[in-house]
Amino acid sequence: MRQDAPYDKQSSGKPFVTHSVEHLDNATLSSDATSGRVSLDPNELAALCEQQIGRRDKRFAIERPVQLTAVGLDGMLDVSQRHNGTSREVSVRGISVDVTHGAFHVSQPLLLGMHFEQRGIQYAGLIVRRVEKLEDGTVRLGSDFGGPAADVLSTGHLLPKFHADQMAFLLPQAPQVYDNWADSGVLQKTLLDHVMVCPKCAAIPTVRNACRKCGSGRVANDRLIHHFACAYVGFQAEFETGTDELVCPKCQLRKLSIGADFEYLTGQNRCRSCGWRDSEVELVGHCMRCSNRFEMAQAREQELYRYDVSRLDPLAVTSELA
Amino acid sequence: MLVDWIHWLSHLSWLEVALLLMGTMLVDCPRYALARVAMVTIDFFRDLWRWLCGQSDKDQFDYCPSICVILAGYNEGDSVARAIESLIGAYSRLEIIVIDDGSAEEHSMVEFARPYGKKYDNILVLARSERGGKSSAMNFALPYTRAEIVITVDCDSSLDDAALWECVQYFKDPEVGAVSATVFSRNPYVNLCTWMQAYEYLHAIFTGRMVAERFGILGITSGAFACLRREAVERTLGWDVGPGEDLDLTMRIRHLGYKIKCAPYADCLTDVPTKWKQLWRQRLRWEEASVVRTHCRKHIDMANPTKASFRWSNFFVSFELITVNLAFGYVILIYSAWLCVNKPHHALFVAFTFYVYTLLLEFINVLTLTYYSRTRLAHLTTCLVLPLSPFYQLFLIANRIISYTREIFWRTSFKDNFVPKHVRDVTWKW
């Protein structure tokens, strides 16, 4: 019975990992003076692991209302399998909970919601390690923190990240999982951004001013000159004489100065691929994944959300109780 | 009062009456009355002959050159869509170039015109970030069209269904360089101010240009709706800096030897000012740029027999405007002052004599209009303000005298905000 196992006297409530590393340093590591490498005796390591695994973290009695929700294989929460209970003991690695209803089995992934007076409900993922039926009919679950629910709740998993191999903003789980968790009240959903993505594959495109007809980016502007004095407007070539100075073809004024005598105007755009001429170019996207070319007006708008959760920190809880 | 006037008039001999009205008899009578009577008489017998011969006088739209309509404007975002709508489908070989002359964002023409540019291949929308003036905006369109005929239309104007067909027929004659269409008021009955302008447009543009064309002295095409042969425009190298760029270009096209024709049934409706103050300012701008700047200064060589470009028809274009509008305006002013000082007790009677005489001339105008009009009822309704017409003429004469004086001494047309400052500072001063 794990609940009856003696508390680890040697660790005196220190975190398991810290203690074990200290132990390894003192007892099992030896340095090869000639090679400078650290060597470890396999037999000693096996004995040490057995000792460490067998060691139990310090447990603290904690009696708080909790809510346990079953997590499906697809990562979705099964709210029909949501049961209330009371926590009994907690350590940095696990927690035991008493529940009056529900069917639980070993290795079942659960989501734990623990009520705190000040902080509200805090969530953690659990894996059931032991199911014990008590005399009064209550079921006592011994669980470790972790499992698929903990993966969803982990810090880096709640923000969409750009994946260069996919050329897309993605979350580790399917979007439906996060929506399901948000609908269940576990996660808070916050809109971060809208990004325009390929209508076919939702990857990020590059964007260019391009020909409206063929989508080519090989589009050039006409450059015209407006001579203020006589209102003549013509292509720049008409003003060029082969020397540095510009001469107005209408009034023959020489040595025109930009700003004072003339201004440049942007005329029509010419597509060098298909010969299309128009005053306007179109914003055209080129998908970085599937090479689809599309007008940006047809691009799909992807909403990027971040998710927040009030996460249960076992270390903080045990520290408070210590 | 009326009896006193008749009594006063009856005591004058015919010679005295003739002397009294000499100015108007010499200038206005031939110009308004005789010319119109002659034109109507000739046309009446021509039409009668055609009718007797069984010839149809219906329009034959059998000439269809390619045309390019230029819609250039500044802050005309509200009206450009309406102007485009009135053009789409109105002609078979049509292209439209919209130029936004640096409009402010809230009145951006591009915003309204661009959807049409996307939808129709024959509509091109060009814009520039800073205002450069209407002339250069229209010149901006020229490199982008190969159409045979270039037509300028103001954004606040809309064309009659057959207007484009009407005006291009005249270009069958390769000597025709420009065609003046007819501009009517779109808002004639808003108030007395707009009504008087509607009446004025009927006579000054509809019948007035018909008469001028008959005598070969038509020298203007309204910028609101002007049809120009592109080849002629390119030979002039486009519009010069305004105001008055439409008049100036027409004169330069005449200078090249082209004929200017009038298309009386190519109708264009335009919004006219609704307030007297606005009208006063508009006319100041028009008049400043017309007679003194264009005819007396810039194109005076066309009226000079020693110059190579001299032609009698060109001479009379300038001569008519300089004598009637400029000289006669000052004569009226001086005569009125002389009358008030020397014969103050006769001044009222003389003024009333002029009033009656002017009404008679206007009545001949109305009769001419009635003969040629295709919408007689509407036009005659507009003519109901006829009794007030002499007062309106006085208003215009006063406006002309002031604007000509300002232009003669201070060249105010070169300070007009119609042209942006950075352009008018460096433009050629005539």
Task: Give a topology summary.
The complex is a heterodimer of chains A (322) and B (430).
Chain A: H1 16-28, E1 29-31, E2 38-40, H2 42-54, E3 60-61, E4 65-71, E5 77-90, E6 94-99, E7 109-116, E8 120-133, E9 139-145, H3 148-153, E10 161-163, E11 168-170, H4 175-183, E12 188-197, E13 205-210, E14 219-227, E15 233-235, H5 236-239, E16 262-271, E17 277-278, E18 282-287, E19 293-295, E20 300-308, H6 314-321
Antiparallel strand pairs in A: 1-2, 3-5, 4-5, 4-7, 5-6, 6-9, 7-8, 8-9, 10-11, 12-20, 13-18, 14-15, 14-16, 16-17, 18-19
Helix pairs in contact in A: 1-2
Chain B: H1 2-10, H2 14-20, H3 22-53, E1 67-73, H4 77-87, E2 94-101, H5 109-119, E3 123-128, H6 134-141, E4 149-153, E5 157-159, H7 163-168, E6 176-185, H8 192-214, E7 225-229, H9 230-236, H10 245-255, E8 259-270, H11 276-298, H12 312-342, H13 344-372, H14 376-382, H15 389-410, H16 421-424
Parallel strand pairs in B: 1-2, 1-4, 2-3, 6-8
Antiparallel strand pairs in B: 4-7, 5-8, 6-7
Primary descriptors:
heterodimer; A: 322 residues; alpha+beta; Thrombin, subunit H; 4-stranded antiparallel sheet; 20 strands; rod-shaped; disordered N terminus; B: 430 residues; alpha/beta; Spore Coat Polysaccharide Biosynthesis Protein SpsA, Chain A; 16 helices; globular
Instruction: Work out the helicity level of chain B.
Output: 55-70%
Question: Which blocks of ≥5 consecutive residues of chain A have pLDDT under 50?
Answer: 1-38
Number of helices of chain A: 6
CATH topology of the largest domain in chain A: Thrombin, subunit H
Radius of gyration of chain A equals 34 Å
Strand order across the largest sheet of chain B = 3-2-1-4-7-6-8-5
Major sheet summary line of chain A: 6 strands, antiparallel, barrel
* Annotated CATH architecture of the largest domain in chain A: Beta Barrel
N- to C-terminal separation of chain A? 23 Å
Give the SSE order of chain A as H and E letters: HEEHEEEEEEEHEEHEEEEHEEEEEH
The strand count of chain A comes to 20
Poorly predicted runs of chain B: none
CATH homologous group name of the domain at 67-301 in chain B: Spore Coat Polysaccharide Biosynthesis Protein SpsA, Chain A
Which class of the domain at 67-301 in chain B in CATH terms?
A: Alpha Beta
In the CATH hierarchy, what is the superfamily of the largest domain in chain A? predicted glycosyltransferase like domains
Structural class of chain A: alpha+beta
What is the total number of structural domains of chain A?
4
Percentage of residues assigned to helices of chain A: 10-25%
Q: Taking Cα atoms only, what radius of gyration of chain B do you get, to the nearest Å?
A: 23 Å
Strand content of chain B: 5-15%
Average pLDDT level of chain A: 82
